[in-house]
Amino acid sequence: MAKKLTLLLLAILLLQQASSGESRSITNDLPLSMVSDGVLEKTPKPNSIWLPGRLFSSDSCDQTYGFLPCTTTVLGNTFLIIVYGYLMFLSAKLLSNGSEILLQILGPGIVGGFFLPLLSSIPDATIILASGLSGDTETAQSQVSVGMGLLAGSNVMLLTILWGTCLLVGKCDLENSVAVDQKDEKRFSLTGSGVSTDIWTSYAARIMVFSIIPFVIVQLPQVFHRTSDNRLAILISLIVAISFVIAYSLYQVFQPWIQKRKLALSKHKHVMSEILIQLKTNALGRLLTNDGDPNKVVIEKLFKTLDQDSDGYLSTADLRSLIIGIQFDDMDINIDEAISQVMRDFDTSHDSKIDVDEFFKGISRWINKAKRVAIMERGKLPPSMKLLEDFDKKTKKEQDQFMDQMDEVVEDVKNVKWHASKAVGLLLLGTIVAAVFADPLVDAVDNFSTATSIPSFFVSFVILPFASSSEIVSTLIFVSRKKQRTASLAYSEIYGSVTMSNILSLAVFLGLVYIRNLTWSFSAEVLVIVVVCILMGAIASFRTTFPLWMSLVAMLLYPLSLLLVYILDYVFGWS
User: N or C of the chain: less Cβ packing under 10 Å?
Assistant: First the structure.
């Protein structure tokens, strides 16, 4: 948290240093002795950054809150968008971290299903509100396209760029139309590699498609050429969107798919790390070589030790004896489920027993996974002796974060008051940062649009989704583990984020348009959202395996979406 506060203060300091200054140009015909230092000059100081040239020319501008810097120059507004965008990204991270702490204390039910989606939507909601609340009706009508650009850009970016990138990062070899976990030998084969998800992820995609109904309702007057009913359609769509937010949140409370999946994944990883620690303790030698590679001789000796009946195979009974002898730090571990998970990871021949070769390859995969986690955390590989201990601590911490505490009392969590105070502090700080800097960010985007003659919708469509979204990095980390379980979780988060944007962010936008009596002129933008959601949702609803070539199709939809809006608005005159 201290690091985030330091970065926040640094960004604010940069804004302060960007405040207005003044100088005069030196012409060639003016002697240096005649140059004034400006001390005795009485000319009024401008309220904007001044730089020469077409890209740098500046007129007067209104400072947000009366003190934040402003400019009408291209480069000046580019700088402001970067700084304000980073502050909004920092706000999203603060809200995300605070939400995770609350999840540890209160459990995934109400917190994970209701509060977390609401909190994660605060940055988007504040930007949308700022785009239409400030100024008179004419100014609000001009700037509200920034909010629509964010709304459309977030959905399209998640379903095209992030969706396709997840497929590239998480790809595995396809065998019998199913991705094989952690096997990536075909590299970039467009048809031979890809990603598989579970059926629950398909259900999440279907819910996402269902969530576009409010967009369809608000467009009905334009479809039937009854523009006089626009306000009624906006009001009905607003009511439907709010109803969907409540229904979806309650559904998540009672069916927390993503939270349960995170918990199951973290438990499995911790069981894996504990087994590695146990094997290392019982090994007749070092389990790892000096280079951190699996020691084949020692692992084969371990296999013979675990093979109680010496038949050359490890059965479920042998695995049960191993797992029962492990102390799991009072974790609620289902022994039968743990045995099944180990068998699934090791038994590649699917004959319900593990031979020595499968045992060595399975242990090697687990050790390599521990290496990847260590490199991700430290940036380098730790000494081989600390590798498994560090991996065990990491998995234990991750398991604690997602432990289902629905039936536990709050006192079971250590330092509850401290963690609760920290969570509240992070949430308040994130909300304050979002509320304060959303308006100047919208002003900077609007001024940049004016300076470059690029419509503000396109500027916000491309830039703002990356500033207000904090789940991009975590989603890519999940899918990089190259397993069906983690791929399902990553894509479920994408579909869930788009669903909340379609209903919650849209509800905020519709409320703003209705209350301020703004004109609804976003037919092209809505069409893009509907088309992308239906197309990507239909693909994910009726199949669970996605070949690599689909990533190219998904990413191609992003520039095509921008092109479609431009053609409809500026060629066919929809706007």
Answer: N
**Answer CATH for 74-254+416-572 from 1.20.1420.30, 1.10.10.350, 1.10.260.40, 3.90.76.10:** 1.20.1420.30
- Apex 8 CA angle, 4 and 11, nearest 5: 140
Q: List the chain domain ranges.
A: 74-254+416-572, 264-399
Q: Where are the beta strands (DSSP E) in 156-310?
A: 172-175, 178-179, 193-196
DSSP state of 232: H
Mean pLDDT (10-residue bins), the chain, 575 residues: 55 52 46 48 43 46 79 89 89 80 65 64 84 80 87 92 93 89 87 88 91 95 86 95 90 66 66 72 68 78 82 84 65 72 83 87 80 66 62 62 40 68 87 89 88 89 81 75 84 88 92 91 93 95 92 94 91 81
Quick one: fold of 264-399? Answer: Recoverin; domain 1 (1.10.238)
Ramachandran angles phi, psi of 157, nearest 5°: -60, -45
Question: Under DSSP, is residue 326 helix (H, G, I), strand (E, B) or coil?
Answer: coil
CA distance 417 to 161: 41
- Identical fold for domains 74-254+416-572 and 264-399, yes or no, is no
- What is d(CA 279, CA 550) in angstroms, rounded to the nearest whole number? 42
Long-range contacts of 567-573 (CB under 8 A, 24+ apart): 568/523, 568/524, 568/527, 569/455, 569/524
Burial 474-487 (b: 16+ CB within 10 A, else e): ebbebbbbbbbbbb
H or E stretch covering 100: helix 74-106
Q: How far is CA 335 from CA 328, 340, 358, in A?
A: 11, 9, 21
Query: Distance (Å, rounded) from C-alpha 531 to C-alpha 523?
Result: 12
pTM of the model: 0.64
Which letter does DSSP use for residue 53 in this model?
A: S
